[in-house]
Design a protein that fits this description.
With about 190 residues, the protein is of the alpha/beta class. Helices cover about 50% and strands about 25% of the residues. The chain contains six helices and six strands; from the N terminus they run αααββαβαββαβ. Strands 1-2-3 form a three-stranded mixed β-sheet. Helix 1 packs antiparallel against helix 2 and helix 3 runs antiparallel to helix 4. The longest helix has 21 residues. The radius of gyration is 18 Å and the shape is globular. The two termini are about 30 Å apart.
């Protein structure tokens, strides 16, 4: 923690972007406090996600719609592509990145990429799903430990949880209006 603080102070002195860095560090610090991953793994996952996004921007059509999340070295690819070659290219690009343990490729082949309206509905479903987790009454359960990603009315769940917590989360989310499918990509504590 002292090293991180030292680096942040050094960046503060050397950079005009200090407010952004400090704000990001505070948010990351708060997230790490509730996370079951180490601070290093949280940072690694952020780097993996950014690296895969950058790689896909360079190698795929702008016409694709791909959501990328990384949790504990597991990369989720969800969304839409127009060709099987793009689907394979996306998976290969993610798999070769340092720190990636596994790639879960949930990309769907479509003739036409969904429009902004569909994407907005997915965002709304994610918001409802996150809010619904606040109603789970299990000792020690923290809803911030569940990462939720929605693509095409399908909700993807990542995190490190107990089996009891996972079952409660899925039960809560699968009954939400607009959800067609719930996919667990959890790691279990038990």
């Amino acid at each position: 923690m002292k090293k991180i603080l030292f680096i942040l102070i050094a960046l503060l002195i050397l950079s005009a972007c200090a407010p952004v860095l400090i704000g990001s560090a505070i948010v990351t610090g708060v997230n790490v406090a509730h996370d079951r991953r180490s601070a290093g793994q949280v940072l690694d996952d952020k780097i993996i996600t950014a690296s895969v996004k950058n790689e896909l921007r360079k190698s795929l059509d702008d016409d694709s719609r791909i959501k990328i999340e990384s949790y504990n070295g597991v990369v989720l690819l969800a969304g839409e592509v127009k060709s099987d070659d793009d689907r394979i290219q996306a998976e290969d690009s993610a798999a070769i990145k340092d720190g990636v343990i596994k790639v879960v490729n949930e990309l769907k082949l479509v003739n036409e990429i969904s429009k902004v309206g569909r994407r907005s509905k997915d965002g709304y479903i994610s918001s409802k799903a996150k809010a619904s987790l606040l109603k789970i009454d299990i000792d020690g359960f923290d809803p911030t430990r569940v990462k939720i990603t929605t693509a095409n009315k399908e909700v993807y769940l990542m995190g490190i949880v107990s089996r009891n917590e996972a079952d409660a989360v899925v039960e809560r989310i699968r009954h939400l209006r607009g959800v067609d499918r719930v996919v667990k990509i959890f790691e279990y504590t038990d």
